[in-house]
């Protein structure tokens, strides 16, 4: 690589003349790459998963987002296997995972590796945008030094920005095309380039932030806000259950207030790639500054406790028919963390299943979106073999099962871990039925 100090090239006047490289072609990067191509950019994709790359080259929808089906035949992602080919690109989007380890400490290894790959192969004047979720300070303390060590000068020969991803898998309304975004950068020119780029590919608002740290912090508090509020109602669910109060009805009642209240709902736990993970970024970062986020830690502890609580509720219900979890044939409806998608990331259902197995339950698991994680072929087979059922994912197909269908199979106990079923209908049918906090 030749390290040049020449002035960076000007942003192309016409969309399509710049080449965009997306590093990380998963739930975030793949839809974004397709959207860039749909807006006229020449798009290049880089990922370490060869199986995934082969599927993309065949034109397959690897993230199961329905809105992409219309775009796929009209767009193309040029796969990069030789990293040197990145030198032809003008804009780089880093969309790699940022998981937490077993101690909930953020793993920045993927971000660091992607940054080094770009720094070693890019040309002068490139715009580099980190979309991966990171804690405040990562761009400044981790990403920037990688480029500077490679000989680039931020604000002159490379422009580094952060536009935290926002994606809601399976959402029929909000997706990468229209969700508003925030952008932060190290300098005014980098910010201007970034805002201009995102405005060219998105239909939603693009809000420039004053600093790159503000952009990093925005994403963390978005999901921490949800985590805290979900923890609040989960704790209420435990309390109200002891008092014989239906938490769902209470929340519906509180929701009639037209201001200053936003409903959140209790369940078997929190899943997905953001809410159960992002608060830890802020918790760990704050420790470096001698600050303890007690509130966030408490919220995480409450939400992490819900799978075990769900199993406790199920055992209490089985006690009514003089059964224990051990040896009982229990049907499990759903493994995915979210309705109508096949996504296992941080799924509380996996924790519930693990606890039930440790207690000796005989499990009959079915998820139409994750057949490889099911041991039943369909709902009918699951019902046929089960003595009790716990619903862990609110897939549409599961909501269609009538109370009478459970009774016909001599299933007496139904635990609604998502609070999505008609409680009164199940009780009227003479079934032992409970939800989380109801």
Overall description:
- By secondary structure, the protein is α/β, with parallel strands linked by helices.
- The protein has two domains: 192 residues, Rossmann fold (3-Layer(aba) Sandwich), CATH 3.40.50.720; 138 residues, NAD(P)-binding Rossmann-like Domain (Rossmann fold, 3-Layer(aba) Sandwich).
- It contains 14 helices and 13 strands.
- It has an eight-stranded mixed beta sheet with strand order 3-2-1-4-5-6-7-8, with helices on both faces. The chain has a five-stranded parallel beta sheet with strand order 10-9-11-12-13, sandwiched between helices.
- Helix 9 crosses helix 10.
- The longest helix has 32 residues.
- The protein is elongated and about 70 Å long.
- The termini are far apart.
Which descriptors apply to this entry?
alpha/beta; Rossmann fold; 2 domains; 8-stranded mixed β-sheet; 5-stranded parallel β-sheet; 38% helix; disordered N terminus
CATH second-level architecture of the largest domain: 3-Layer(aba) Sandwich
Biggest sheet strand order reads 3-2-1-4-5-6-7-8
Taking the sheet with the most strands, its summary is:
8 strands, mixed
Distance between the termini: 63 Å
What is the β-strand count? 13
Helix/strand/pairing category: alpha/beta
- CATH topology descriptor of the largest domain: Rossmann fold
The best one-word shape is elongated
Give the SSE order as H and E letters. EHEHEEHEHEEHEHHHHEHEHEHHEHE
